[in-house]
Write a structure and sequence with these properties.
The protein has 126 residues and is mainly alpha-helical. The chain has one domain. It is built from 6 helices and no strands.
Amino acid sequence: MNPAIATLLIALGLFQTKHFLCDFAFQSLWQVRNKGTYGHIAGISHAGLHAIASVPALLVLTQVPVVIAALCLGEFVIHYHSDWSKARIDTKLGLSDKDWVYWVIFGADQFVHQLTYLGMIYILEI
């Protein structure tokens, strides 16, 4: 396998693993319930964990601290606002996990997170 492709796949695999852990295994009900309140520490802590947990994947691609810090900050901002928007939409529409639209919005939120990882990789590879 081409070493450059292998490096990209390793980074993407690390992003995918950290996403599963941070969004599903480590996320508390407190965080889920409060992400719709702008500025609440629950959403900030959740997005912050995502940003910090991206460091191993980023280290596969670069060892430049300021670049890693900038990408983590960007991810934090995108992740926080994506989650906040999803929670606000769910609340405003009165959605629950029994509604089809809830799952479409959930999927869109997850898609934004995945595009963020691809964007971070792209930025480092251009």
